[in-house]
Amino acid sequence: MPKAHQLSQTAYDRLKAEHEDLTTRGRIDIARKIEAARELGDLSENGDYHAAKEEQGKIEGRIMHLSRMIENAVIVEATAGAEQVGPGAIVTVVFDGDSEEDSERYLVGSIEEKVDGITVVSPGSPMGEALLGSKTGDTVSYEAPTGATLTVKVLAID
């Protein structure tokens, strides 16, 4: 069974719109570029043709990725004002040994939920798993990929 992708309604709607745009306008635009490049002659030495075909491959890859995400999406409610960390929450933490002025903000969710200026941490990552269910004031520890144990204190949940 494919892995479910937890997304907010906003992210889901944005991905659906991007998918629709790429499957219609995007495919038409790239087909025009390929056709124009073909008209330039010899395809073996035609940089425009090869660039257009590469762009087409990237678009088709993105379409397949979006299709899988949309098909397996589970809409989760925003956790704004929540008392504990859940998917979609923006969490302010401070690492053990740092001062609160060095706090960092993380969005616990899919990279597709990305917000400018906030690092995304997957709920399935060591840090994400440790943060899920924690509350403001809690201290959680997790093992980083390097093998080191890191500890963070939850300062706020947005």
Outline:
With 158 residues, this protein is of the alpha/beta class. 39% of the residues lie in helices and 22% in strands. The protein has 2 domains: 5-75, Helix Hairpins (Orthogonal Bundle), CATH 1.10.287; 90-157, Roll (Chitinase A, domain 3).
Description:
By secondary structure, the protein is of the alpha/beta class. The protein starts with a strand and ends with a strand. Helix 1 packs antiparallel against helix 2. The chain has 3 helices and 7 strands. The protein folds into 2 domains: 71 residues, Transcription elongation factor, GreA/GreB, N-terminal domain (Helix Hairpins), CATH 1.10.287; 68 residues, Chitinase A, domain 3, CATH 3.10.50. A hairpin with a 5-residue loop joins strand 6 and strand 7. The chain has a 5-stranded mixed β-sheet. Strands 1-2 form a two-stranded parallel ribbon. Helices cover 39% and strands 22% of the residues.
Helix-strand layout with pairing:
Elements (H helix, E strand, L loop, with lengths): L4 E3 L1 H30 L8 H25 L1 E3 L14 E6 L8 E5 L10 E3 L4 H6 L7 E5 L5 E9 L1
How would you describe this structure in keywords?
single chain; Chitinase A, domain 3; elongated; two-stranded parallel sheet
Helix count? 3
CATH topology term of the largest domain: Helix Hairpins
**DSSP E strands, number:** 7
Task: Kindly name the structural category.
Answer: alpha/beta
The topology string of helices and strands comes to EHHEEEEHEE
How much helical structure, as a percent, in the residues? Answer: 25-40%
Biggest pleated sheet: 5 strands, mixed
Please tell me the CATH architecture of the largest domain by its name: Orthogonal Bundle
Strand content: 15-25%
The largest beta-sheet arranges its strands as 5-4-3-7-6
Q: How many separate structural domains?
A: 2
Q: What is the assigned CATH homologous superfamily of the largest domain?
A: Transcription elongation factor, GreA/GreB, N-terminal domain
Low-pLDDT parts are: none
In the CATH scheme, the class of the largest domain would be Mainly Alpha
Distance between the termini: 32 Å
Outline, from the CA principal axes? Answer: elongated
**Kindly state the mean pLDDT as a whole number?**
89
